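Lecture 7, part B: from sequences to assemblies.

Below are the input chains for today's worked example.
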Amino acid sequence: MFDIVKFLNSFSTRKEKSSGSVAKDRLKLVLVHDRSNCSSEILDKIRADIMEVISKYMDIDTEGLDIQISETKSTQNDRNVPVLYANIPIRGMRKLEE
Amino acid sequence: MGEVIVITSGKGGVGKTTTSANLGMGLAQSDKKVVLIDADIGLRNLDVVMGLENRIVYDLVDVVEGRCKTKQALIKDKRCPNLYLLPSAQTRDKTAVNPDQMKKLTAELKEEFDYVIVDCPAGIEQGFKNAIAGADRAIVVTTPEVSAVRDADRIIGLLEANEIKAPSLIINRIRMNMVKKGEMMSIEDVMEILAIGIIGVVPDDEYIVVSTNQGEPAISDKNSLAGQAYRNIVQRLLGNDVPLMDLENTNKFINKLKKFFKISR
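Predicted structure of the full complex, as structure tokens:
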């Protein structure tokens, strides 16, 4: 009998995140995109263009490329403002043709 | 010269009309001259929430189109002598009025009233643009739900784009027992996300349903928790510093109230 109670309790303690904090996290992510007013199609185009420009000069790891809209605290007020975050791993420099 | 306050939210059903009715009545009970404007053309509602639906002769569109004088369309509240309602039209749509006409109307009304409270329709289209056109300040109503907070964020952005600076937030229908269990976003969560000043938190209160059924705003009921929250917001609108209600211990509060009334009887 005691074991059954323990068994049932293990479910409640294993519960990962409360739905309230799930809501908050989901909202934050959604608002980052809403506030930037940047659709995923535009982001894809930006990604392609950046890759094209940088590829002229550098050999980049397209698999490890990470471009996304993120957030940072505004310098003017308390509100968070969107930033374009790009992490572009470089394999090496290209030899520039003279 | 009075002040034009627009009550807005983006999402529908979060309590704009209830908030408008309660704040309007509360300000009027504080001896301010108040007019409520129902800006939701085609979906008239503020009149039934106020219990004034049987007295409508003219409406907002009649005033704007010059079929009557502004004063003729104002319905005097039967409980508060200095509270008036300008009802919306039921048979027209949002395009019947434009922002310039609303600006002119609110400018005219604030000559005579201390507060002009505009109940904004849901959405961000023409009805919203009309409602905010003449506003000096805005109150954004939200509930602690993802959809309502998301829409509130959008509305805050649009208000700022329209030069209505520093809107204030009301978090409506919060359920502290759920917040405690982590099953609902807290006041702090919503404030952190929206990052605007808060003017009040209204607990979820079954009495709101009863008061709306009867057409008697909850603010007049001394026992209603939501009514108390609205009374506090009214005080803050009047410039008085009132701390946010302690909703954590509402049960104790209710018990105290009950005890008090038993003793006094």
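Note for the exam: The interface with chain A takes residues 145-146, 149-150, 153-154, 157, 178-179, 181-186, 189, 193, 195 of chain B (CB under 8 Å). Keep this in mind when comparing with the next example.
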